[in-house]
Amino acid sequence: MEASTKQLAKALGERIRVLRLDKGLSQEQLGERSGLHTNYIGQIERGEKNLTIESLQKISRSLEIPLEQLFHSMDPLYAQTELGEIVVMLSERPVSDRALILSIIKAVFAWEVEKRK
């Protein structure tokens, strides 16, 4: 693999690991759900393997997320915007933290609307 491909594989593997842990799954459980070998899941998460589209689809279905969500916040240019920075920060947090942050944001926006009245 060339350098940029290795970086992409590593970033995608890390993203899959974070999403797997968010779901409370072990590598073994993700492997069982997806029909992929546990060793292969580990190699993917470490960025050692290039994934096929079929494997990506199996993993996204097993994680119960849309395929495109695997790639959220992976574009390095995206992370250079304020919105991109927020997305990156949130993507690294557990689901419970994200739900709390969403409720806080909604409350702040509702407060702002009420303040204008």
* Strand proportion: under 5%
How many helical elements? 6
Radius of gyration: 17 Å
Termini gap: 58 Å
**How would you characterize the largest beta sheet?**
none
**Which structural class do you get from the secondary structure elements?**
mainly alpha
C-alpha geometry: elongated
Order of helices and strands: HHHHHH
Q: What oligomeric state best describes the polypeptide chains here?
A: single chain
Low-pLDDT stretches: none
Mean pLDDT: 87
Total strands: the figure is 0
The percent range for helix content is 55-70%
Tell me what the structure shows.
- The protein has 117 residues and is mainly α.
- The protein starts with a helix and ends with a helix.
- The model has no long low-confidence stretch (mean pLDDT 87).
Features:
0% strand, 117 residues, elongated, mainly alpha
Short description:
By secondary structure, the protein is mostly helical. It has helices at 3-22, 27-34, 38-45, 53-62, 82-91, 95-116.
Helix-strand blueprint:
Blueprint: H1 3-22, H2 27-34, H3 38-45, H4 53-62, H5 82-91, H6 95-116
